[in-house]
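Supplementary Methods S3. Input chains for the assembly prediction are listed below.
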Amino acid sequence: MNTFGQLFRLSSFGESHGRGIGGVLDGCPPGLTVDLELIRKELSRRRPGQSALSTDRNEADEVELISGIFEGKTTGAPIAFLVRNTDMRSQDYDYLKGIFRPSHADYTYHSKYGIRDHRGGGRSSARETIARVVAGAFAKMLLNTMNISIEAFTSQIGPIVLEQQDSTLFSSELAAENPLHCPDREKAEAMMALIARVKEEQDSVGGVVSCVVRGLPVGWGEPVFGKLHARLASAILSIPACKGFEYGSGFDVSQKGSQQNDAFYFDGERINTRSNHSGGIQGGISNGQPVYFRAAFKPIASIRIPQETVDKEGAAVKIQIQGRHDPCALPRVLPVVEAMAALVLADACLMAKSKERIV
Amino acid sequence: MNTFGQLFRLSSFGESHGRGIGGVLDGCPPGLTVDLELIRKELSRRRPGQSALSTDRNEADEVELISGIFEGKTTGAPIAFLVRNTDMRSQDYDYLKGIFRPSHADYTYHSKYGIRDHRGGGRSSARETIARVVAGAFAKMLLNTMNISIEAFTSQIGPIVLEQQDSTLFSSELAAENPLHCPDREKAEAMMALIARVKEEQDSVGGVVSCVVRGLPVGWGEPVFGKLHARLASAILSIPACKGFEYGSGFDVSQKGSQQNDAFYFDGERINTRSNHSGGIQGGISNGQPVYFRAAFKPIASIRIPQETVDKEGAAVKIQIQGRHDPCALPRVLPVVEAMAALVLADACLMAKSKERIV
Amino acid sequence: MNTFGQLFRLSSFGESHGRGIGGVLDGCPPGLTVDLELIRKELSRRRPGQSALSTDRNEADEVELISGIFEGKTTGAPIAFLVRNTDMRSQDYDYLKGIFRPSHADYTYHSKYGIRDHRGGGRSSARETIARVVAGAFAKMLLNTMNISIEAFTSQIGPIVLEQQDSTLFSSELAAENPLHCPDREKAEAMMALIARVKEEQDSVGGVVSCVVRGLPVGWGEPVFGKLHARLASAILSIPACKGFEYGSGFDVSQKGSQQNDAFYFDGERINTRSNHSGGIQGGISNGQPVYFRAAFKPIASIRIPQETVDKEGAAVKIQIQGRHDPCALPRVLPVVEAMAALVLADACLMAKSKERIV
Amino acid sequence: MNTFGQLFRLSSFGESHGRGIGGVLDGCPPGLTVDLELIRKELSRRRPGQSALSTDRNEADEVELISGIFEGKTTGAPIAFLVRNTDMRSQDYDYLKGIFRPSHADYTYHSKYGIRDHRGGGRSSARETIARVVAGAFAKMLLNTMNISIEAFTSQIGPIVLEQQDSTLFSSELAAENPLHCPDREKAEAMMALIARVKEEQDSVGGVVSCVVRGLPVGWGEPVFGKLHARLASAILSIPACKGFEYGSGFDVSQKGSQQNDAFYFDGERINTRSNHSGGIQGGISNGQPVYFRAAFKPIASIRIPQETVDKEGAAVKIQIQGRHDPCALPRVLPVVEAMAALVLADACLMAKSKERIV
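Predicted structure tokens for the full assembly:
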């Protein structure tokens, strides 16, 4: 299950310490102008070493576009791409060969497959998300032609939470001021200080990403098992370390129906809702209001603090995880969240087109 | 998109006020003894009119098994089933023909399809979940042969929340005492009182379902885009009114990695974890610990309190929703949550079998 | 694998001597006027007992449309339908319970599933094709709105072959004169006489269906693994007793490239080809010329002549197959061939729509 | 639609004159020893310039295995691979930029996508089959562990046909003597002479491939829409230039049921059939006998003889196709036929595993 999407489909491949990470994007419509700058920008947002908040691993992450493009435009053929791994220090992982790191995929992969590329987490490494970011950039190119935008923010780090919970009210300008893309100056400072402290403690910390999609037309998403929010949840929860997803009013179930229902009104041009507890999706289908959702990311499991665990024979061992790891999934996960949302929306776009009234 | 699953696949059909609700379950392994009592029991848990907490609609919900069964056992052929609608009062919905109920799927279906069966919500009605409950019962029959159990609890109604958040510690015995299947006597009383009050007020209220799966072997779930929790999220969020999903530590990101990592140890027989913040899933694959997750359900959108809205021409209208509606998605949604989880797990079981080492 | 299609998808269910045969058609575009007469006509063409050429089993084959239709139009929701079995004589099959009929699916189903509904072939019965004919009628309704027609002819029975091999030159008028829909009066007579003789001999005979599709636009079909002819082949070869498929020049490989290449020319309005050895498909995509293909059907395996075989313990037994069986798959298979072609084309239509240039 | 398979899935990418051809193989079971020699051997059989019968294009076709392999074994992660294009002479194709070659995919791709990589046929080039051959080699590695063999023969070139039509009787030893892998010395000579003459005439010629699979267990293949022969047909007809597929008795429908039915008998160890008109498949499921099928390949459309055609404005032009082209799809297509058959069988193997009786 390394393929995502129905009509706009990414097949991802590669391991952390193998030859590289890449993907094949099938179903991208023809005639789309390829924006190389966008791909580079998105990769750069995800790349380690961009700020003091992240790991020291230093990958150039240059992408090679192998197929599906002719004279600067997509042709409708599959777009294959590859980002080669360069700054690997696989020997850093030798000591882990037969050991299961706590809260990692080591034990489950070992049990499922009986063989495991232990170097840097192999296939389960978050480095795999490069494939999503590149494919997501193509999805964004498609969405851009329809003036659809996607923006992810940091809204919580450890216990530091934004008071404003409605992310459709977040200020992109304020967010642009800090590397966390957090729309609150003071909170952003505190969050960065917390991440720095946690890094010093050789520990890690979790956080929450809030994401807003603007410009969606009415009618994207499929009823029953292809609901737009269910597809978004599946996409976002496929990102390593993601533990929860909610959209619109989400887990805030304390209000009554009379308070949470979104009244419709006609503004002279189109039908709108006075509030947006529905998060822009009703019955699984976009209603033309902004879509917004939140995603929880657990503290990164790789910490340098010594931990108890077992090896594959079941013998108790103590490990101290080496290698270069982020103290927090945020902010590097922000472009990955946007990319996965973009993949879901591009797919929903093509599905909606296929369903357009013929008769 | 009315089909769910890769190998164990349900195709659902039917409308609230059409001839009936049914499904086709393809991929169910052969030789499974069909437990009719289980199907009836699950349907009965979902059926309206079982307690003072739900709507008065009174459907017998008798299921006809049409195919795929021979001499009391599954044959490997698709299992079709149908529950006919009987107690419909479609005229109750005549006044809604051109009107969009707030926070319902009326407006989005109308916009997407240009045609809409308005009677009782048509295809978007929660009555569709009958198909999931029947198919889920077959999934449970399969899981039962492996001693895997699934149990859903009510853990929140409106602002009333259980203190104990770890649902693996919930008492099934205590839960069995009340119709909400809430494992806390006092809280259950308060929740039921709240639902009764809200019903009287012609309003509605939301809640949270906690669900525990026990007995899963290590190795179910597929990496990257088929992660077990992502499939569960997609399944659960496809249930009407569901707004959020979290598993394990979920949105509780305030702790550090050193606190949340689950240490492995060998108990003499197998490898276990000392804590279970991972929620029984690591890298998208079951690790042999209990799987637990929570799902948020918004207040039912159908309330009798008068509401502002528009008709399909955009004219402002005031509506007072008639028909028979629950004041709360819980407890009737509990068997639906279990059924969707069962469908995901049965599918994961077949996927895992297909991947078993050949060489 | 009881589901066919990517976007226009049929899930088929039912057994020969179970409660009935039916299907769920998902993805049919909304707003299509349901032509009940067409469904009845197609079912009637497939129904036994329509001419002296077929079995005596007498099924009314009344279809119940269960869902997905509102006020005479499709709604975009799944269309479930059911044709109940009525004229079953299951006891006719009791003697076959543990015996494998030669060239039937008895042995392979038994080996694969370990359990088998032996009555009338169970799931492997050609009665299953009712589901295809009903779903195919919906596909035809969709194609009709675009003036696309599909017509299947009998072009060979046993050794009696039409001289004219290019089915695009067949006369529909002549074909309409005889129950085989064979466009050659004399040959049709001879074929019917042969079928009658074979029936008398309690034997069976094979034949070839030729099918022509007119009115296809340029651009349907997907490159590489979704080629239009590959989808057609897969569809047609899924019909019981089908052993071969060819399109355009097919197995006639004796000519050279200079003879078989189809020269393009512009007729003032559009680009055409002077010949059509390509069968209307180039690179897997329709080129606007008529699509034509041929399908071979083996002699029906159920014959009354005594045969040697074994039972499930491997003991040699002699059987004489009872029950009511056709001496030839043709002409009853003609509407099934058309239906499968229609399903492929409706699906290709939706796929093509989804790929339409967005930018 | 550049992905093939349900569980053992190849996603193919690349163009004739782009950076290379490659694929991602997902679902390959873990622990399989990677036989690099086999991959090279299969690629070499497909490579141009191996005999006087084929084009002069000289590609080294060195494959890079990018992911999914660790210490010489498959890990269960997707296997990405890339064969870079090196000996391209794209300028050979400049004159074709706006011209539609007869019986090629130029016109249909242009119409469908509005943009086309005209160099060497772009995505529609037979060079794409490299991806199938590499993935097919992995499928063969899997099948080899079960002693399943696949062998393709040349059984017809132009009008020269083998008298022996039952390919299960072909001699592999005789076939190994000539580059066509034709099991008849004299006919092979004549066929090679014909290909040489046609090449001299700057023309091309068609042919038929016969393929035999031995060692299949009983029970592979899925009923109704996943029939083993329907999957094989879809696979084989997805190969460029393939126009027809038949298995077992195929288009030979002149015999009666009493002649074609395959009587079962027990040989002391297992159930066999006395004849094999069923081609090893009954009801879509393998019955343990050899599977054999035939595939027709039209004359290669690229001929140097001048041809009439039009350009994209519809103006009549005369073209003389340059570039390096084979005069016949055979013998280079033989390993491609085997590869596609291997992909179908590996997939059927995993599907059968997933269905194994659980209860």
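Chain C is about 25% helix and 20% strand. Chain C touches chain D through 105 residues (CB under 8 Å).
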